């Protein structure tokens, strides 16, 4: 499903070029639930942004569902992302002026889904994350955990094959963190592949595989007995 080979990413923004990822190779199969771990600055977010087609890389190849997505234009990348990838951010990234329903409809607007179907699917996705009764609210009227559930509804509304999340529980308390991990486990059990960055070992326990980054390389990669919620 995800097949990357020898991916190198160099940031050239400051003085010295910085090698954030150094020839990373990684395969993720359908149905996996993987935690990307490692200390701050080890390259986790850079990896996630590349996997989510939010950023480019300098060399190497990336195959997503058998298709070479290494050299897409911004437009092509956005198209593939909207169709095949759901992305969840640490800081939710909801549109503040839109209602929760409109936020969840947005990926379907980009996919030209007709209004009535958009509405039905958005309501369904919100019910899926336990927020069917909050559709008319705006993001500033709900809690952080609820915002992240809206973001998950938005991420799954186009039924992506893979759900990606960068520190999705980084801004949440421990009880809300478990709510989010439970939703991820349920979606994974229903067949969605999940890849998630976390630096918290307690959060990684709920996944089936840990990939450990250190200084831009993969230091360790092992399956584990998943703690079920
Ligand atoms: P992590 O997510 O593990 O904290 P990052 O992927 O954010 O690591 O960062 C990896 C390295 O790349 C760090 O040294 C970081 O400072 C650097 N870096 C990340 N983003 C940028 C950027 N946009 N410009 C320059 N350097 C960056
Ligand atoms: P995280 O590690 O949780 O992803 P950071 O605080 O490292 O968050 O980075 C936040 C944002 O700043 C990211 O978009 C990242 O690309 C950018 N960034 C990180 N390090 C640098 C850097 N050294 N120079 C420029 N941008 C950076």
From TrEMBL:
Biological processes per GO annotation: amino acid transport
SUPFAM superfamilies (alphabetical): P-loop containing nucleoside triphosphate hydrolases
Molecular function as annotated in GO: ATP binding; ATP hydrolysis activity; transmembrane transporter activity
Highest taxon above the source species: Bacteria
Entry GO terms, CC: membrane protein complex; plasma membrane
Pfam families in the cross-refs: ABC_tran
Record-linked CDD domains: ABC_MJ0796_LolCDE_FtsE (cd03255)
This protein's UniProt keywords: Amino-acid transport, ATP-binding, Nucleotide-binding, Transport
Record InterPro entries: AAA+_ATPase (IPR003593), ABC_transporter-like_ATP-bd (IPR003439), ABC_transporter-like_CS (IPR017871), ABC_transpr_LolD-like (IPR015854), MacB-like_ATP-bd (IPR017911), P-loop_NTPase (IPR027417)
Domain ABC transporter: 2-229
Official protein name in the record: Putative ABC transport system ATP-binding protein
Organism: Pisciglobus halotolerans
């Amino acid at each position: 499903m995800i097949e990357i080979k020898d991916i190198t990413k160099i940031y050239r923004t400051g003085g010295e070029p910085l090698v954030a990822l150094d020839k990373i190779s990684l395969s993720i199969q359908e149905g996996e639930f993987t935690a990307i771990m490692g200390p701050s600055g080890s390259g986790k977010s850079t990896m996630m942004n590349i996997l989510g087609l939010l950023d480019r890389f300098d060399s190497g190849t990336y195959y997503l569902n058998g298709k070479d997505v290494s050299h897409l234009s911004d437009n092509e990348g956005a198209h593939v992302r909207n169709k095949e990838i759901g992305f969840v951010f640490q800081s939710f990234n909801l549109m503040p002026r839109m209602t929760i329903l409109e936020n969840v409809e947005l990926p379907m607007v980009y996919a030209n889904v007709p209004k009535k179907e958009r509405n039905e699917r958005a309501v369904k996705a919100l019910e899926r994350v336990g927020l069917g009764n909050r559709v008319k609210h705006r993001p500033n009227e709900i809690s952080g955990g609820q915002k992240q559930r809206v973001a998950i509804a938005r991420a799954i509304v186009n039924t992506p094959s893979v759900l990606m999340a960068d520190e999705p529980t980084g801004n949440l308390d421990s009880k809300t963190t478990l709510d989010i991990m439970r939703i991820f486990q349920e979606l994974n059990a229903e067949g969605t592949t999940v890849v998630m960055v976390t630096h918290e070992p307690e959060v990684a326990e709920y996944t089936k595989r840990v990939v450990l980054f250190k200084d831009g390389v993969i230091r360790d990669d092992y399956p584990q007995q998943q703690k079920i919620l």
